[in-house]
Amino acid sequence: MNWDDMRLFLAVARAESLTGAGKVLRLDPATLGRRIARLEETLGTALFARSPRGYGLTEAGERLMDRAVQAEQALTEGAEELRGQGGQLTGLVRIGAPDGVANFLLPQVTAAICDANPGLEVQIVALPRVFNLSRREADMAIAVSPPETGRLTVQKVTDYHLHLVAHRDYIARHKAIRGLGDLAGHRVVGYIPDMIFDRELDYLSEIGVERVALASNSVAVQLNWLRAGAGLGIVHDFAIPAAPGLVKVLPEAVSLTRGFYLIRHGDDRKLARLARFAGLMSEGLRAEVARLEAQTT
Question: Which GO terms describe its biological process (predicted)?
């Protein structure tokens, strides 16, 4: 068995399909399938359970996955030691994040880091779900609540705040809102209830809203509805400056605080490059949240 075989195995295990892995590897899926079949034949065991849904790891595949990740880790650590811990950051870093932080914070924070480190490449995977770092979907992830299981390291980055908002035009066209009881007469924008992937995002239930007339799993879509004067919704304070015309509604009655957590795989804690990047990103996120929230007071 050689490292090239392990590289192909890891790609298929993480993508859970030949097509997805082929795109990452820039390899034809049919060729990749033959390589995986040959690897299984060499090892004398099935590594994947094939189904219409894709390629899932067998028990033997799970065991090999652990070893392959350890080997990948050792190679990465060796390369970083040769490069040394000083100097500029280089290489690729992939960050998984909910689309709120991915849209309104990470672009400017990571752009500043890349300005100071021209050899660095950053990918932001903006998806409204929890990321599986064990399968290396990303090098690190931002979450709105700390995970309870897994071989992970968790660091709280910062608190952030959310308020009920509406566009000035919407407020001018509709009846006055003097208390929470008045919300029943207004159209509400929010998450699709059965697609809320973290209980910390179930904002509207905290203020007694049961019906969401305009719903999306995307924070950006919700913000665009509010910017268009379509209704009321709860928004991150750091996103409000991106939508001129939005104003806080009942700011004393509806004021929420949440936190961002940086999640990394436990095996990455000794990687100097990722540790340095994580430190710069965390510092940048704290500063950017503070800067943007100060514009909404």
Answer: DNA-templated transcription
User: 67, 82, 97 — which closes off a domain?
Assistant: 82
The answer to whether residues 240 and 165 touch, using CB atoms and an 8 Å cutoff, is yes
CATH number at residue 135: 3.40.190.10
Which position has the higher pLDDT, 45 or 78? Answer: 45
Residue 294, C-beta contacts closer than 8 angstroms, at least 6 positions apart: none
The answer to whether 110 and 89 are in contact (CB under 8 A) is: no
To which H or E segment does residue 153 belong?
strand 152-167
pLDDT in tens, 241-296: 999 999 999 999 999 999 999 998 876 666 778 889 999 999 999 999 999 999 98
263 and 207 within one domain: no
Could you say which of 82, 116, 149 is where a domain stops?
82
Is the pTM higher than 0.90? no
Instruction: Identify the helix (H) or strand (E) that includes residue 233.
Output: strand 232-236
